[in-house]
Amino acid sequence: MKKTVFLGALTVAGLAAGAAAAGTLDDVKARGKLNCGVSTGLAGFSAPDANGEWGGFDVAVCRAVAASVLGDPKAVEFVPTTGKTRFTALASGEIDVLARNTTWTFSRDVDLKFTFVGVNYYDGQGFMVPKALGVSSAKELDGATVCIQTGTTTELNLADFFRSNNISYEPVPIETNAEAQQQYLAGACDVYTTDASGLAATRATFENPGDHVVLPEIISKEPLGPLVRHGDDEWGDIVRWTLNALVAAEELGITSANVKDMASKAGNNPEINRLLGTEGNLGAMFGLSPDWAVNAIAAAGNYGEIFAKNIGEDTPIGLSRGLNAQWTNGGLIYSPPFR
Amino acid sequence: MSDIHSETVAYVRDTMLPEREPPGSTVGAVGWMRENLFSGWFNTILTVVSLILIAWIVSVVLPWAWSPTWNAESLNECRGILNEMGREGHFAGACWGVIHDRWVQLFFGFYPADLYWRPILAFLLLAPALAPVLFSDKVPAKLLYFTAIYPVLFPWLLWGGPIWTPILVLVGFVLAGVIFSYLSRASGTLIGIIAALAFVVVWFIWGLGAISGQINHMLGVSRLDAKLEQVQDRIADRTAELARIDAELAETQAELAEIMKAESEAKETGDGAFLNLINTAQPTRQRLKGLRAEKNLYGNEVSDLNSLRQRIERLSTNVEDMPRLEEEAAKARADLPQDVSNVRTENGLSALNQRIANGEADVPSENVAALETALTLEAKLRATKEAVIDTYADVARIGLRPVDSRQFGGMMLSLTIGVVSIALSLPIGVLLALGRQSHLPLLKALCVGFIEFIRGVPLITLLFVASTLLNIFLPPGTSFDIILRVIIMATLFASAYMAEVVRGGLAALPKGQYEGADSLGLNYWQAQRLIIMPQALKISIPGIVSTFIGLFKDTTLVSIIGLLDPLGLSNAIRADSAWNGIVWEIYGFIALMFFVFCFSMSRYSMYLERKLHTGHR
Amino acid sequence: MTTITDPPRESFRLSQLLYDTRYRSITIQIVALIGFLLLIGWLISNTAQNLADLGKEPSFSFLADPAGYDINQRLIDYDSRDTHLRAAFVGLLNTLLVAVMGCITATVVGVIVGVLRLSNNWLVGRIMTVYVEMFRNVPVLLWIVFTMAIMIEVFPAPRAFRGENPEATMKVFDSVAFTNRGFYVPDILFGHQRLPDEDGNAPAETWRTGLGDFPIGADPDNAACASYYATEGPMAGQPDTGCGKIQISLDLMVLLIVLGGGLYASHRIKKRADRIQQATGDRPTTWWARLAVVVLPFVIAAYALGMHLGYPALKGFNFQGGTHLRNSLIALWLALSLYTAAFIAEIVRSGIMAISSGQTEAAAALGLRPKRIMNLVILPQALRVIIPPLISQYLNLTKNSSLAIAVGYMDITGTLMGITLNQTGRELETVLLTMLIYLTISLLISSVMNWYNNRVKLVER
């Protein structure tokens, strides 16, 4: 137990428990806190407010997981990660789950050995240009200067897109969205490319959003979702089904407002009963309390509520549901049955 | 000569003329200007160019900075205010609201707001701790005792924890000192140093943990029930408080909504109506902010207390579970062959499975199953043990509330990394400098190799090592949190530079000092301790300060690996949709903070240089 | 410790290893070596164990895989299908470029500021002090970000150059465009385009041609080399981009050789003049001859090769033609130069002040004018004090160039330790390789500068 030994020695300085092995659930319960990796700052998805309280779409996922595991949405330590440090942080056990709009790709899943537990946002890489440029399609961008955010799959998609269309471009790699936005607004690049959600979020905060258009081409599939380490299936299940619970809750009409009510006694819908633990005991199957889903939903609301509160049409980000509508409404958001 | 007068002729003046006023062009402002600004055509050109430059900078910066946006709560409000004043466009004016909103965060990061006194006190106490070293003639020598305990007081204040941790650390050093002085008298200084170092290592790796674990356990058991009760009371109390805050919050929000109803109207009216509105809303908004902060604080406390309560309630089952788990895990592993038993992680297991599938390894499937069981049980055991230890530690703690290093941020993070790294790098640097001056070729080569390696690579690569590789270099299962890792690498970085500074100090000492020490019959370590080092370090103080300034500035690089120092925070702040699009205000503020810190330190170091220049070079 | 008789020879005892100074040093060294080896062994075994646990195997084979990303500033041909290794090399060249440019500018600015700080013009002295303190006391990363922001905000976008009455115009006889994407300056071209124009007519002037490029490592199987191996057609003998590992411009080579020859001849003329002066005391007037041997062959060669300037012109979204100095390069270069110059200024100032005032007075007594005192007496002496700290400033600048990622300049940190690391997930290999490269650069710089320092060092008695 080398770690415990160190633990004693370094209590002064504080030490993160880290073990790239099974038992994440036990670790989290022992610690009483969930370590959740988030972006260092991306409007609508994760950002700290003036009190240092984190908020956003990805943050809500962390809170839901913490609520279902520990019963307390505030029992989360947010670990800001960059594009380069996020995978190491997860692999080394510094964080238990990474909720940092990370694209689910083959090599990340197989080669880097991470388990993507689902998709909480279906995105795609798009282009934004000033209206004054008179461009209506990305294929007209021959010779344009393109601002890209580095450390993502974006630059690879971009290289592939321009190469396959046999047109040239000038890439301007930029570390953060804030700087990319500044360069784009000043005209240092003609085009800004990143995930379409990011484009919309950025455009929404412009002084004159109407002067800019997002081009119709979406050049990649970017399913964004939380991920955990390979090899701990129990923990993967917990995160996966917490996410599914949020999705199912929206479909079944359970909201943060009525969830306590509905969970107080068994109702007529057996699936709701199973989800909320009033019938059977799904929670016990993965070592959680019966009201795990109740806590998760009460934490920040169901998927629809989280969406509406952080990035929905009434927020400054102003994203419409689109692909991220429930499957019943023609979207792709779909939860396997709770049974 | 005395007869000058007697030979005086009419055309020779025989009285002194009264002093005349110097010509108007050489005195006063005009004279000064002629002397200092317009002496010669070249200087005149330089002056004119400089004046134009200054005028241009002032004409650009001043109108921008002069902007009544202190109370704005978002960039849009700033734009509204400026538009109302007829200022449009990119450089219409600064949006100072962001500084008003976030300056505390830029200083303290995510440190709990009720504990701000701790970092402030820790950094303030740095002055009395350094005073006996820097002003040995002015302060009482007794203050040296404070200097001795400061290195453990500082981390204790910042990170919190039980009072016995710093005490035990101190005890460890005192014991090491005793061992050193005893052994160095009995069998030589070198043996003494080695023994003392070995003791410190043993003490820190085994002794300290064991003793504080024991204390935690004893105190924890005895205080368990009382603590549970106390926690429950506190939760009830805080929950009631939260309900009150919620009510007040709703009320204040309604009040604010009432005031802000006039917003769209005011925006259209123009003529300062919008600015007036913002200023009117200010007290309410301030109250709202305060309430939110309070709510956040209490909410976090309740969350922590709840978690503690749950852990206390689970404690007895956990304690009972431990021996059983241990036994079962041992049993599962007992019959495994050596190469299977070596596998300690899930990834190792999957690698093993891969090899079995490829036919490279031949392991019976029941062994794999047993290994799987063992791994699960071990993970459970480890977590349980940790939970028990942590719970006891939390229950037993008499001292300060612990603060995670993740909550460090802003200027405080930069200062902490700077101060801790410099303090730790000083002894390492001294040893490296001595090693570099040593006559032992191998030792010298090792030290030179280390110093040149560290000085040859950029800090950012070392920080990448901290963020991605350091855990890989350490024994499996050990993991420091990122800030500790950064401090470790920054210490290594600074110690190479420190070694060069100290080497400069050593080189500056006249040879006579070494020879004098030798002639007194002092051995190497005595000579270093009593004669050489005190003088060499004194000469090096300015160099040490400038190394500190350099390191302090370089701490901004941690933003590249995702830590929220002021620069990292600036990105996080700009991700807030209220402040998305802010550039100059926040960079300017950060630059100003760094300037104030670094400039005052460099001025102070210059003063020290003059003061310490005792003139024996 | 003089003794009259030799101490009696004792048999070797084990305790001598500790107490006998003859043996102790060996003991200590052996212990240190063992300790060091143990430490290294411990680190390596930990690493191996951890990597095995993570299911990773250290291997550099990823360097041969296609990189998949584009780099905007490339000093050698590169596209997204090239390997990670080549991407890293492109990054390395970018690092070296900005480091060399930065060192030169920082030295020039630093010396000027250092001298001006001592100027007797009050205002200038103060401004220089403000400059030095401002740059020394604010982190370089902040300066880099700041400079970039200024570049972006102050200069016009290329689209401002468009239209009947453009908001911005090109400067310096319509040849240079200052935009917020960087500066477009004319570049040097050789020969005339031998490609037919848009209507398919061969251009009139085809008689003057450059020598073209010579690809190293050209391969007949490479499609990009088709035109190089072709014997007829407009581009015959001219390799396309992507043909060979590196292409060398033969025209430039020829020009450099001609220039070098001219300089050598000029040097010989000077030598001869010196000899004549030694022998006779009269120095023949040689400036016209020296100028002629340098300039004339160069001009003739340049004309023969068809050297001309290619002007940037606004086409489509961007300026085309000319050389594009990207604003990431300029921002990084300026920020690093100005930051380092502040330190160099201090070094220069203290170097000058270290020269005793007796030297100035003596020089003044000889009747030298202030400017000549500075150039002939003070600076040569101050240089000896200045050079050692200057070396470490050069090293610092080179190392600080790794902050390029803050402005998206694709140096070795941005390519190898940036996108490559991120895309391949090979932290160990990329970070160690990057460190090794920086270490090599640093050691090279310091050995070259130390060699120079030893040359100019005052030989003491």
UniProtKB/TrEMBL annotation, chain A:
<dbReference type="Pfam" id="PF00497">
    <property type="entry name" value="SBP_bac_3"/>
</dbReference>
<protein>
    <submittedName>
        <fullName>Amino acid ABC transporter substrate-binding protein</fullName>
    </submittedName>
</protein>
<keyword id="KW-0813">Transport</keyword>
<keyword id="KW-0732">Signal</keyword>
<dbReference type="InterPro" id="IPR051455">
    <property type="entry name" value="Bact_solute-bind_prot3"/>
</dbReference>
<dbReference type="InterPro" id="IPR001638">
    <property type="entry name" value="Solute-binding_3/MltF_N"/>
</dbReference>
<dbReference type="GO" id="GO:0006865">
    <property type="term" value="P:amino acid transport"/>
</dbReference>
<comment type="similarity">
    <text>Belongs to the bacterial solute-binding protein 3 family.</text>
</comment>
<feature type="domain" description="Solute-binding protein family 3/N-terminal">
    <location>
        <begin position="33"/>
        <end position="262"/>
    </location>
</feature>
<feature type="signal peptide">
    <location>
        <begin position="1"/>
        <end position="21"/>
    </location>
</feature>
Automatic annotation (TrEMBL), chain C:
<feature type="transmembrane region" description="Helical">
    <location>
        <begin position="137"/>
        <end position="157"/>
    </location>
</feature>
<keyword id="KW-1003">Cell membrane</keyword>
<dbReference type="InterPro" id="IPR035906">
    <property type="entry name" value="MetI-like_sf"/>
</dbReference>
<feature type="transmembrane region" description="Helical">
    <location>
        <begin position="287"/>
        <end position="310"/>
    </location>
</feature>
<dbReference type="InterPro" id="IPR043429">
    <property type="entry name" value="ArtM/GltK/GlnP/TcyL/YhdX-like"/>
</dbReference>
<keyword id="KW-1133">Transmembrane helix</keyword>
<feature type="transmembrane region" description="Helical">
    <location>
        <begin position="431"/>
        <end position="452"/>
    </location>
</feature>
<keyword id="KW-0029">Amino-acid transport</keyword>
<keyword id="KW-0813">Transport</keyword>
<feature type="transmembrane region" description="Helical">
    <location>
        <begin position="330"/>
        <end position="352"/>
    </location>
</feature>
<feature type="domain" description="ABC transmembrane type-1">
    <location>
        <begin position="92"/>
        <end position="449"/>
    </location>
</feature>
<dbReference type="GO" id="GO:0043190">
    <property type="term" value="C:ATP-binding cassette (ABC) transporter complex"/>
</dbReference>
<dbReference type="InterPro" id="IPR000515">
    <property type="entry name" value="MetI-like"/>
</dbReference>
<protein>
    <submittedName>
        <fullName>ABC transporter permease subunit</fullName>
    </submittedName>
</protein>
<dbReference type="InterPro" id="IPR010065">
    <property type="entry name" value="AA_ABC_transptr_permease_3TM"/>
</dbReference>
<feature type="transmembrane region" description="Helical">
    <location>
        <begin position="246"/>
        <end position="266"/>
    </location>
</feature>
<keyword id="KW-0812">Transmembrane</keyword>
<keyword id="KW-0472">Membrane</keyword>
<feature type="transmembrane region" description="Helical">
    <location>
        <begin position="87"/>
        <end position="116"/>
    </location>
</feature>
<dbReference type="GO" id="GO:0022857">
    <property type="term" value="F:transmembrane transporter activity"/>
</dbReference>
<dbReference type="GO" id="GO:0006865">
    <property type="term" value="P:amino acid transport"/>
</dbReference>
<feature type="transmembrane region" description="Helical">
    <location>
        <begin position="23"/>
        <end position="44"/>
    </location>
</feature>
